[in-house]
Amino acid sequence: MKNSLKYIKNILKVLVWPILFSLGTFIINYIFVAIFNSKEQGTMTNNEFLEYIKGIEYQEKLTNYINSKSLLIILITVVIFLPILFRVFKKYIIKNNFKIKNIFIPIAFGISISLIYNIILFYLNNFIPFTNNFQVSSMPIVVQIICSGICGPILEELVFRGIVYNKLKEFNKPMRAIILTSVIFGLFHTNIVNAIYAFCVSFILIYLYEKYKTLKAPIIMHISLNTTIILMLNIITKNFMAFNIYLLVISIIVLLILRIYLKKDA
User: Which pLDDT tens digit goes with each residue over 18-32?
Assistant: First the structure.
């Protein structure tokens, strides 16, 4: 009984970090929503404003406002959380032999997984609608890449592979720590499809982390993965032929990277 309580207590200590990170990002976003609401309400009474926020016009204005502030929001998030998360993760840093030439495998993993996942969902979407997965942001593509393609993966890897996984390894067998990290990572995503996807991807991110003994490897893969998704979604909505050409070119690049890497190891 004591061991069980101790184990639960340790799990809760680990969960503090993803919960704190999620809560912090929510509060930062909510502050901007509150600022927008105070400007938008103007002279409206509370009852009038409550009716107003139920309408499509309000939702569109709010979305546009948050999108316009995305860079500022992510900058605030990075400034607040990056030093805190890195300080916690710092004790788990060990010497590694990760070199520039090693970046190609995490990139190949990220691009390949992203292509496979999105191609499957794209064609399944004809039978089962996955609308949340194919909504393209109205933000400029550069802003999307900076926010979701670069900053997001860095912070998430620090939280989940850097802190959660390493802390779980302290009181779990390796495979249990991997599974628990992947479950937690999946649960912190928005819907069931993304949760399953995140759960599976987490295994590969952890594999890269353990293979190279550095968080740089999963970060590079995560950035490649998210950036590929952003580019794919933007191309799909604009030109389907361009999308197919994009797939072909990227697939060839991935195959060349893998061929070169495997040839070196042979």
Answer: 999 999 999 999 999
Q: Rounded distance, CA 243 to CA 116, Å?
A: 14
Token pair for 113: 């997984």
* pTM exceeds 0.70, yes or no: yes
Instruction: State pLDDT tens for residues 129-138.
Output: 554 555 666 7
> Token pair for residue 227?
């950036």
Is residue 78 within 8 A of residue 152, CB to CB? The reply is no
Report the amino acid identity of residue 102: N
111 close to 254: Cβ distance less than 8 angstroms: yes
Rounded-to-integer distance, Cα 72 and Cα 74, Å: 6
Which residue from 101, 83, 87 is spatially nearest to 220, judged by alpha carbons? 101
Is the distance from CB of 211 to CB of 217 less than 8 angstroms? yes
Angle at 26 between CA 93 and CA 34, to 5 degrees: 145
216-238 and 240-265 helices, crossing angle to 10°: 150
Q: Which of 67, 234, 74, 227 is nearest to 151 (CA)?
A: 74
By the 8 A CB rule, do 161 and 209 touch? Answer: yes
- The contacts of residue 179 (CB under 8 Å, 6+ apart) are none
| Nearest CA among 174, 158, 180, 205 for reference residue 11 | 180
Q: Which residues contact 251 (CB under 8 A, 6 or more apart)?
A: 115
Residue ranges making up the domain that contains 42: 2-265
Phi, psi of 37 (to 5 degrees): -65, -40
Number of domains in the chain: 1
